[in-house]
From TrEMBL:
This is Ionic transporter integral membrane protein. Keywords: Membrane, Transmembrane, Transmembrane helix. The chain crosses the membrane at residues 7-26, 32-52, 64-85, 100-121, 133-153, 165-184, 226-243, 263-283, 295-319, 325-347, 354-372. It comes from the Bacteria. It is found in: Membrane.
Length: 374
């Protein structure tokens, strides 16, 4: 299939419309009707991003496909966090912490729980590669502890924040661990992150069909030109997703304030909006019995959210005024510990049922409830 034949598809023009909406709404106070229009564009861009991510993943195979989406979303998420921190004043001192922790909880409990639930409903037992998933979870737990737990207990500065030297160490350690994990995932131990058959053998990393392209009548793998075109459209769609999310964020903030909710709820809503493409992609992969790809997306996104955000925030703190609060409170530390323990018990067997999926979703529900009612 040639590029000309896909130019008229909704997956091409919807992200462009969403990008136009972003340009028209940037830096302006929007009336309610305009906010609704931008929100619709946001939803369309999310669906388009999922489609293009699957095309790219179908071309490059696993684990590169899930890595492309995770890194692309996280890079733009970091840009959104920094932009909101610049504009937000003192109220944004904890925005990075709230958004990153929300991303960890949503990915490690929400996306993982939904993927296991869908996979178990389809095959009774969801099967995945315990070696790769366990390594990813261990890296996420280490990154979260170094960046979000330790600031609560350090004594160099009052409050849950790092000193300049401690923040530099956390940034270097986060970036180094993330880089090491990517090297293991894509080069040295790539087979640990591929789907496994029910008999335990590693399956090929390519996706099944249902991507929407049939360039090769035998394999259905998109051509290089189609994959490159989808990669460009994926970036456009993700820019539109995050930009439109920023455009509606003032309405979200005013709604949160009007409802008398904690300001940390803003970080939760932003993380939910930004992670929609990965959530939908993970659920669709689980429906195709590719639970490993779903876990790659979930845990890879959690890891990228910490491993890329903390170094950038550390650099941004040089010119950002005010404190940078990174340390979690007691309630959130309990939820993080519960997530790590339950996650370890889930991934070690390499098999999961509906129960494990339900447990993870229950933890996410507890997090969202306590964010609204601390």
């Amino acid at each position: 299939m040639k590029i000309e034949s896909v130019m008229g598809r909704w997956t091409v023009w919807v992200p462009l419309v969403a990008l136009v909406a972003l340009v028209l709404s940037w830096g302006r106070d929007l009336p309610l009707l305009a906010v609704v229009a931008v929100a619709l564009c946001l939803a369309g861009a999310v669906l388009a991003a999922v489609h293009h991510a699957e095309v790219v993943a179908h071309r490059v195979g696993e684990p590169f496909g899930s890595l492309v989406l995770a890194v692309a979303v996280t890079v733009i998420e970091v840009a959104l966090i920094v932009t909101l921190m610049v504009d937000g004043g003192d109220k944004s001192a904890s925005l990075a912490r709230d958004t990153v922790f929300a991303a960890v909880m949503i990915t490690c409990n929400g996306i993982v729980g939904l993927s296991l639930l869908v996979g178990a409903l389809r095959r009774r037992i969801a099967v995945f590669n315990a070696e790769g998933s366990g390594a990813a979870l261990a890296t996420v737990a280490t990154l979260a502890t170094l960046s979000l737990v330790l600031p609560t207990f350090t004594t160099s500065k009052p409050g849950p924040e790092f000193s300049a030297a401690q923040l530099t160490f956390a940034a270097v350690a986060s970036l180094g661990l993330y880089g090491l994990f990517v090297a293991m995932q894509t080069v040295r131990h790539r087979d640990h992150f591929l789907s496994v058959a029910r008999e335990g053998a590693v399956k090929d990393g390519a996706l099944s069909d249902d991507v929407g392209f049939d360039d090769d009548e035998h394999s259905g793998v998109p051509s290089r030109s189609i994959a490159l075109f989808s990669l460009v459209m994926l970036l456009i769609a993700l820019i539109a997703v995050v930009g439109d999310a920023k455009a509606v964020s003032p309405t979200i903030e005013s709604g949160v304030d009007s409802a008398g909710l904690p300001h940390s709820v803003v970080g939760v809503v932003i993380a939910l909006l930004v992670l929609m493409p990965e959530t939908l992609a993970a659920v669709r992969a689980a429906r195709r019995d590719q639970v490993q790809r779903s876990l790659n997306l979930a845990l890879g996104s959690a890891m990228a959210s910490i491993g890329l955000t903390i170094p950038v925030i550390a650099l941004a703190s040089i010119w950002l005024e005010g404190p940078l609060l990174l340390g979690l409170g007691a309630t959130h530390m309990v939820l993080l510990a519960l997530t790590v323990v339950v996650g370890a018990l889930t991934v070690v067997p390499g098999r999961a049922t509906l129960l494990q999926g339900g447990v993870h979703l229950a933890i996410l529900a507890a997090y969202v409830f306590l964010a609204v009612s601390p």
